[in-house]
Amino acid sequence: MSCFCLRPKRTISQEKIFEEHKKKDTQEYRKRLGLKDDDDLQFLLAGTNLIKIRSKSWQKNRYFSLMEDCRTISYSSKKLFKKDQTFLIDDIESVRKGRQTEGLKKYTDPTQDEMCFSIMFKGHNKNLDFMADSKEEADQWVTSLQKLIKHIDNLSKKQTREHWLINCLQKADKNKDNKLTLKELKHFLRQANIEMDDTYAEEIFKKCDTSNSGTLEDLEIEEFYNQLTKREEVDVIYAKYAETQGEMSATDLLNFLLNEQREQATVESALKLIEKYELDEAAKQKKHMTKDGFTMYLTHEDGSVFNPAHSLVYQDMSQPLNHYFISSSHNTYLMEDQLKGPSSTEGYVKALMKSCRCVELDCWDGPNGEPVIYHGYTLTSKVLFKDVIRAIKDYAFKTSQYPVILSLENHCTVEQQRLMAHHLIDILGSALVTKPLGDTMPTNLPSPEELKGKFLVKGKRLNKLDAVFSDNSTADEEVVSEEDEAADCKENDQKVKSKKSKIKLAKELSDIVIYCKSVHFSGFEHSKDNQSFYEMSSLKESKAFQLAETSATAFIHHNMDKLTRIYPAGSRTDSSNYNPVPMWNVGCQIVALNFQTHAKEMHLNQGRFRPNGFCGYILKPEFQRSPSSQFNPQSLTNGPWLQKKTLHVMVISAQQLPKLNKDKEKSIVDPLVIVEIQGVAEDNAKKMTHHIENNGFNPMWNEKFEFPINVPELALLQFTVEDHDSASYNDHIGQFCLPLTSVQNGYRQVPLLTKRGVIIPSAGLFVHIMLLDRQ
After folding, report:
1. Backbone phi, then psi, for 359, in 5-degree steps?
2. Is 71 known as a binding-site position?
3. Alpha-carbon separation of residue 233 from 245, 475, 657, 701, 766 (angstroms)
C-alpha cells in the first residue's frame, strides 16, 4: 500500500525524503489510473482561469486546478486570506459542453456557446457553470475531466478501498508527520466507521509496531492495513478449495465454481478468471489464483449477485411494443413537489440518463405565443416547450437506443398547438415518427428494435390511423374529449373539470400521433370490442389498483395487445409514489413514477429495469403475452407461471459502510440488513438481521433466511442496509434491487447504492444465495 503523506516542520533532509515519498505516492496513483504522463492530466494539474457564472451580475474569475491527489479540484479567488474551495471528482455526475443548463442559456450570449461548459454533480449539489477564454480551452476541460472520471471509475474495487482507507489515514494523522500514534490510530478507526475496544486497539497497535517506536510508519502501516482488511469469511472459503500448494489451481477454482456458484463452468472459463483477476504474476504463470486474486474475483462483476450477462441487451427486442415493461416518468419536468417546486429541462435530462423511455409534458399557453410546460393550476415554475424538446433530443439516446414516448397533456389553444407540432417536427426531424412504418395499415404495434432512435408522440388524434392511407381529410381543428388530459389537476378541482371537458385539437398536432392515441377507458369489454391496437388509456393509480384486485386476468389480457399507462394520484402533492409491482403483475407497460423522489418505489423501478442493458425495456414473461394464459396474480393456479422454488439467503458480512453523521466524530453506524421479496402477493416477504453495535467497517451477521417463491419471473429481490436507532426511525445506508431471474447463485457481492441510486464505491454486502426447486 502506498505511504500516506504530508507536512509538519522538518529539516532540509527530512523535507527532501518527504517530497520523494509524496512524489512516489502520486506517481503510483497516476500509474494506476493509466495517466502517468498523460497530457490531459497535466492540463488539469496546471489549471486555468475560468469564469464561474451564477447570474447576469455574478460572473467571477476563479483559478481552477486538479490537486496532487488527482481526485480533488480546488479553486480560489484573488481575495487574501480566503480559503480555497474544493470538490471531489467522485461527486461529478457528468460534464456538459456548451450552453446546456438553464443558467448558461439565461446568463450568457448564444455566440459564447462554444466557450461554455457545466459540471453536474450527483445528489442535491448544484451544478457549476463556466466560461473559458476560448473554445479550445473549454474543449480541453471537458475532454480532460471526462477522461479522468472514466479512469477513476475503472479503478478496481481493491484500489478504491485502498484509496478510501488512505484518505481516512491522512485525516487521522493530525500532525502530518507520516506516522500514526495510538491516539491517531483511534481517530482513524472512527473515521473508518469502526468502534473498537481500547484494549484490542492497543493490541493491534503493538502487534504492528515492530520497531517499538510508539508509532506506526511505512511497512508497519501496511501491516496494520492488512490486519484491518483481513476477510475471515473469504479465508475460510479459499482454504476449503485451495488444494494446490496452498493456492487455487484452475481445477480447484473450477470445483468452487461448480459446487458453490452453481455455474456451468469449464476449465477454460476458470483460466479466464485467473487471467482476469490474479494480481501475482508468478501465480498467474502457474495458472493459480492466490487469496488476493480470489478476493478480487468475489468483489467484481463475475462475483456479483447480478448476472453480468444481463448487463447487456439479451432479450428479444423484436416483439410488439406492448409486450414490454417500459421505464416511465410522471410530470418529468418537476424537480421537487407538485405544487410550488421548480420546473426544469434538467428533469428530462436526469430521467433520460436513467434510461427512462416515456416522459410527460404538460403543455399550456405561454407568453409571446410560445407554449410552456408546468403543472397547471399550481405555483410550479414554467419552462419553454421548445427548450424541453431540445433537451430531450440531446439526451434521449445517450444511454439507450430504444424509442422514447413523449406523453403530451395538451391544454393549449389551437394556435400554440400548431407551434408545438412545428417544434416537434423541426427539432426532432426524421427521428419523429409521423406515419406508420411500412406502406400498408399495420395490425399491431412495431417493436423496440424497429423503432430504435425514434420518438413517438402520445396524445389525442382526430381520426383513425387508417386515414393516413386514405384520401379522407379532416378539418384543420376539431373538438375532442379532454377526459384523459391533466387528470391529476382535475381530480382535485371538480370545477375545472366541468368547465374544461372538451378542447379544440389542431390537425397538425393530431397528425403526428401515430401509435399512441389517447382514449378514455370504459371497461375491458368495451376496449376489447372498440379499441384499436394503437389506442391506449391512462389510469390513475386508485382505478388501476381496483381493477388489478377485481379483474386481474382481464387486465392482463387487455395489456396483451394494448398499451396502458398508470400515473400517481393527484393527492400525492409531495411527489411520493405508489408501489409499481402490482401494476407490473397485471402487465401494465407504462407505470409512471415521480423520478425525482428517491425512495423505495424508485429503487424497485431501478431494479426492474437493471437487466437487459438497462435500456428501459424489459420483455414481459410469456404468460403475460400469450392469449391462452389464465394467469391471475391474486389467485395462483397451476400453469407455466407457477415454478415453486425456495430462495435461501445467508447475509454473511458487509464492508466499509459509509459513516452517516460525518460531522459527529464519535458517530458509528449500527447496521442491520433487510432482505425483501416483492412480486405476486403470495411471494411478498421481508426478513431482517439483528443490528451490530458500532461497526460499519466489517460487520458480520451469518444469518440465514428462506423465502418460498411461486412466480420467480415477476419477483424482485431487494437488499436494504439501515443504521439501527432504538429511539427513532432507522437511517438509510444503502440498497440494491434486482429481478430474481438475474440473481447469481453462490457466494456473491451485493453492491450498495445511495437513496438516489448512485453506487457507493467502497461499500458492499457479502451473501450466499441459492434458488432451489421446491416440491
Report:
1. -115, 155
2. yes
3. 21, 74, 17, 11, 9
Q: What are phi and psi of 285, to 5 degrees?
A: -60, -35
Q: How many domains does the chain have?
A: 6
Q: Is 731 helix (H, G, I), strand (E, B) or coil?
A: strand
Dist CA 1 CA 189 (whole Å): 18
Q: How far apart are CA 545 and CA 539, in angstroms?
A: 9
DSSP state letter for 698? S
Q: What is the enclosing helix (H) or strand (E) of 608?
A: helix 600-608
Does 79 count as an annotated binding residue? yes
Residue 463 CA: distances (Å) to CA of 420, 425, 525? 19, 20, 22
State the SS3 of 54-100. CCCCCEEEEEEEECCCCCEEEEECCCCCCCCEEEEHHHEEEEEECCC
Give pLDDT, residue 18.
40
Q: Which residues are catalytic?
A: 330, 375
473 is in an annotated binding site: no
Q: Which of 275, 303, 331 is the last residue of a domain?
A: 303
Q: Same domain for 338 and 293?
A: no
Residue 60, annotated as binding a ligand: yes
Lowest average pLDDT, out of 20-29, 223-232, 243-252, 466-475, goes to 20-29
CA quadruple 352, 356, 357, 359: dihedral positive or negative?
Answer: negative
Q: Are 33 and 151 in contact (CB under 8 A)?
A: yes
CA distances from 77 to 85, 226, 616 (A): 9, 42, 44
If asked whether residues 215 and 164 sit together in one domain, one would say yes
pLDDT, tens digit (0-9, with 9 covering 90-100), for 405-430:
999 999 999 999 999 999 999 999 99
* Residue 552 vs residues 50, 522, 680: alpha-carbon distances, Å: 59, 16, 12
For residues 462 and 506, give the distance between their C-alpha atoms in angstroms, rounded to a whole number.
Answer: 9
Final residue belonging to a domain, choices 126, 154, 182:
154
Structural domain containing residue 614: 321-466+501-624
- Residues 367 and 379 placed together within one structural domain of the fold: yes
Give the phi and the psi of residue 371 in degrees, each rounded to 5: -65, 150
Tell me: is residue 409 an annotated ligand-binding position.
Answer: yes
CATH of the domain at 296: 1.10.238.10
**pLDDT tens digit string along 97-119?**
999 888 999 899 999 999 999 99
Annotated binding residue at 75?
yes
Say if CB 437 and CB 456 are below 8 A apart.
Answer: no
Residue at 133: amino acid letter: D
Q: Mean per-residue pLDDT for 530-541? A: 96
Q: Let me know whether 225 and 236 are in one domain.
A: no
Q: How confident is the model at residue 31 (pLDDT cuts 50, 70, 90)?
A: low
For the record, the C-alpha cell of 650 comes out as: 445467508
* 713 appears as a binding residue in the annotation: no
Pairwise CA distance, residues 595 & 592, whole Å? 9
Place of cell 458487509: 654
Q: Is 77 annotated as a binding residue?
A: yes
DSSP letter at 216 equals B
Show Cβ contacts of residue 90 under 8 Å, excluding neighbours closer than 6 positions.
Answer: 71, 152, 761
Does residue 640 form part of some domain?
A: no
Full-model pTM: 0.85
